[in-house]
Fold this protein.
Amino acid sequence: MFHLEISPELELRLLTEGHSQLLFELIERNRAYLRGWLPWVDGARTLDNTRRLIRASLRQHARNEGMNVGIWYHNQLVGVVSYNYIDHVRRFTELGYWLDEAHQGNGIMTTVCRAMTNDAFGRLKLDRVEIRCAVTNQRSRAIPERLGYTIDGTSAQLDWTSDHYIETVVYSMSATQWQLQEANTAHDSANRRRRQL
Ligand SMILES: CC(C)(COP(=O)(O)OP(=O)(O)OC[C@H]1O[C@@H](n2cnc3c(N)ncnc32)[C@H](O)[C@@H]1OP(=O)(O)O)[C@@H](O)C(=O)NCCC(=O)NCCS
């Protein structure tokens, strides 16, 4: 069962049926704004629908083809991050995410996506992680940009939301680029610590 403690206040746990009520309440609180960006929101109109979505994602997880993970901040469910699919042949995945509106602006999702990128390249041994964002979704785009992902291109008909296509920008990170970046970050912080001594 996937469980990752990123810090004492921030944890990731695989979503299971027991989380249906909590997840449904969180979606209800954020429905109006999520609807603008995420195509599945209208499919989670009731507790029962939400439970069905969790069951489907658990079946996907059992096949090792993706997973939906709850984000717990100070022991409260505040959002979801997912591997929307995992392609083991071409060794890549796509990250998806959303966060309770009241918990935005604190770097939670950037920290979570860093941990998931590490997980994809470490535990899952994939070669590439993609993040797709609506071109106009600046908050979402800021996440791969903060993490050093690069833009592969844009597409007018790759993604759909509510009732229309949205123009999408595709970001990606390779395992090699990530390792290099992480090594440079570790090197820079070691140098900073040395200078402070
Ligand atoms: C996309 C989404 C998750 C971004 O949420 P977010 O709170 O902006 O992202 P983070 O949690 O990483 O927080 C970043 C913010 O915290 C600030 N921050 C504070 N401490 C930080 C830290 N240690 N690291 C990074 N950012 C930090 C950043 O400056 C930024 O604030 P700013 O936008 O005012 O500059 C959220 O807007 C959302 O759920 N949107 C709807 C669903 C959606 O669009 N999903 C994506 C589909 S592709």
In short: The chain has one domain: 3-190. Strands lie at 3-7, 10-14, 67-73, 76-87, 92-99, 128-134, 150-161, 164-174. The chain is about 40% helix and 35% strand. Helices lie at 20-34, 47-62, 108-121, 138-146, 175-196.
